């Protein structure tokens, strides 16, 4: 039996063209030099490739390339944003985030809490959304930073970062957005958003694992301190030899995401709607999270039937029963608990995520496989 891949929110395969671009920056006949070796052509060519990739990433998100710092992924970007701003803080000690965030933000905020920062943990509304009014009500004179995600990795729900950003800016705090799940799915224009810091990851958008970036806008410059020291790379914000091949892969994947976005999103919206309608017509199946304010790529469903067994389904479908990004733990999803589900409903919930290579036959097979797991 073919195991159909429905876990694009956990990771995506690297696009074939992206792999070719990466290969051209690895071997001895390629651009393998150290981008920091400015004195010879090997280094200069590698630097050129890194800067091209920076422009490609910047282009997808409407940023200035000079405002992007390479990291090892969105986990590190989130750590740098939160800890870096906290380390540079003068006076302000209050941070606002939500119970729906990825562990890379939750655990980092908890760490800062243990170091004496005060954290307000926002609860989502019944739809799993963090409303701008809730954020505005939490803001204080001493609020340093607000950190929220753009697209929720478990639910696929969308946060209104444009409105929230305006509210945060009015109060003089910085706004960090984790956009790991958003690139290639929603249009992002940092030039017009009141966002100061934004985290990106390559492997959610058909690029390689282990590479990401943090956007540090002009307002945040000087208000953030490096968390990795050693050589002063990346304008002193993140030291370490740049991984040319990974960076080239991220640039190439993001350029492709920009080219394909409209067409790909139209196709996935069609497939996502078919999957959603097919599954919601089955007995006991409910959608977790808002039905409207979402991307079509990620569906989270509670299969509220005592006989339903997630294990049976995992023989035919590759999906996540809790956030794959958290699968170091088998605890019920903190996101679903925050939404008001009890532990047993959370355990009977599944996340199906679609992507570039999902076909209609995969969608049909998924509906059939889930139907098969329910009483006839
Ligand atoms: C919303 C979100 N933030 C951060 C991460 C972590 O990204 P990375 O794997 O690049 O560290 C993920 C996925 O794992 C994610 O979905």
Automatic annotation (TrEMBL):
The keyword Transferase applies. It is an enzyme of class 2 (transferase). Keywords: 2Fe-2S, Iron, Iron-sulfur, Metal-binding, Pyridoxal phosphate, Transferase. Residues 5-365 form the Aminotransferase class V domain. One of its GO terms (molecular function) is cysteine desulfurase activity. Its EC number is 2.8.1.7. The keyword Repressor does not apply. InterPro entries: Aminotrans_V_dom (IPR000192), Aminotrans_V_PyrdxlP_BS (IPR020578), Cysteine_dSase (IPR016454), PyrdxlP-dep_Trfase (IPR015424), PyrdxlP-dep_Trfase_major (IPR015421), PyrdxlP-dep_Trfase_small (IPR015422). Gene3D superfamilies: Aspartate Aminotransferase, domain 1, Type I PLP-dependent aspartate aminotransferase-like (Major domain). Its cofactor is pyridoxal 5'-phosphate. It catalyses: (sulfur carrier)-H + L-cysteine = (sulfur carrier)-SH + L-alanine. Belongs to the class-V pyridoxal-phosphate-dependent aminotransferase family. NifS/IscS subfamily. This is cysteine desulfurase.
């Amino acid at each position: 039996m073919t195991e159909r891949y429905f876990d694009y929110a956990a990771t995506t395969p690297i696009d074939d063209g992206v792999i070719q671009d990466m290969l051209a920056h690895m071997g001895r006949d390629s651009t393998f030099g150290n981008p920091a070796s400015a004195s010879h052509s090997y280094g200069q060519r590698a630097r050129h490739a890194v800067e091209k990739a920076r422009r490609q990433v910047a282009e997808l998100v409407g940023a200035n390339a000079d405002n992007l710092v390479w990291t090892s992924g969105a986990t590190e970007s989130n750590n740098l944003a939160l800890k870096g701003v906290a380390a540079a803080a003068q006076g302000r000690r209050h941070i606002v985030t939500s119970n729906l965030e990825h562990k890379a933000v939750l655990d980092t905020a908890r760490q800062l809490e243990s170091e004496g920062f005060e954290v307000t943990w926002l609860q989502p509304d019944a739809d799993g959304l963090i409303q701008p009014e809730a954020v505005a009500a939490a803001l204080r004179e001493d609020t340093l930073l607000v950190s929220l995600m753009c697209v929720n990795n478990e639910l696929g729900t969308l946060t209104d970062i444009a409105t929230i950003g305006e509210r945060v800016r009015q109060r003089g705090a910085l706004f960090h957005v984790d956009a790991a799940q958003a690139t290639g799915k929603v249009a992002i224009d940092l030039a017009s958003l009141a966002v100061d810091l934004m985290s990106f990851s390559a492997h959610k958008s058909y690029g390689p694992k282990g590479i990401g970036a943090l956007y540090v806008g002009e307002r945040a410059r000087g208000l953030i301190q490096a968390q990795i020291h050693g050589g002063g790379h990346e304008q002193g914000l993140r030291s370490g030899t740049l991984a040319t091949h990974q960076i080239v892969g991220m640039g190439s994947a993001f350029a492709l995401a920009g080219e394909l976005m409209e067409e790909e999103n139209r196709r996935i919206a069609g497939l996502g709607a078919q999957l959603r309608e097919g599954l919601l017509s089955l007995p006991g199946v409910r959608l977790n999270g808002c039905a409207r304010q979402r991307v079509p790529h990620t569906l989270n469903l509670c299969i509220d039937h005592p006989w339903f067994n997630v294990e049976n389904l995992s023989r035919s479908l590759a999906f996540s029963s809790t956030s794959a990004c958290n699968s170091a733990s088998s605890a019920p999803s903190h996101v679903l608990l925050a939404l008001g589900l009890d532990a047993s409903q959370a355990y009977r919930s599944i996340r199906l995520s679609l992507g570039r290579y999902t076909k209609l036959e995969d969608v049909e097979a998924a509906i059939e496989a889930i139907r098969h797991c329910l009483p006839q």
